[in-house]
Amino acid sequence: MEHNMNEAERMLKDALEIGLKQDHDKAAVKLNLAVVASAKRKTKLAKALLNDCKRLDAKGVLKKDIKQVEAALRSPQQMRMRGR
Predict the structure, then answer these.
(1) Which of 47, 56, 61, 81 is deepest in the core (most CB within 10 A)?
(2) H or E segment to which residue 10 belongs
(3) Which residues are within 8 A (CB) of 27 and not within 5 positions of it... i.e. 6 or more apart?
(4) What confidence tens digit (pLDDT) does each residue in 11-52 have?
């Protein structure tokens, strides 16, 4: 699973580097990168990515998903239990 996570992270970063036209696409990529960062226990990076995601999601399409990831970051024990 770790290999898949690293590969997913690499592909998401490549998508950002290549360039996405729509802000909501960038927000979705950053949200997924935040999930990967939290799985790797890099909470500061995950929070920074979530803040970028909020800024880019002007229409609020990802609002519910952002709240779920924030809740998971607030209770890391719950996140570890899901990974088992």
Answers:
(1) 56
(2) helix 2-18
(3) 52, 53, 54, 56, 57, 61, 62
(4) 999 999 998 999 999 999 999 999 999 999 899 999 999 999
Cα 54 to Cα 59: distance, rounded to the nearest angstrom: 10
**Are the C-beta atoms of 83 and 40 separated by less than 8 Å?**
no
Show the domain range for 50. 2-82
For the entire predicted model, the pTM comes to 0.84
In angstroms, the CA 56 to CA 7 distance is: 24
**DSSP-assigned states of every residue in the chain:** -HHHHHHHHHHHHHHHHH--SSHHHHHHHHHHHHHHHHHTT-HHHHHHHHHHHHHH-TT-TTHHHHHHHHHHHH-HHHHHHHT-
Residue 7 tokens, joined: 């590969």
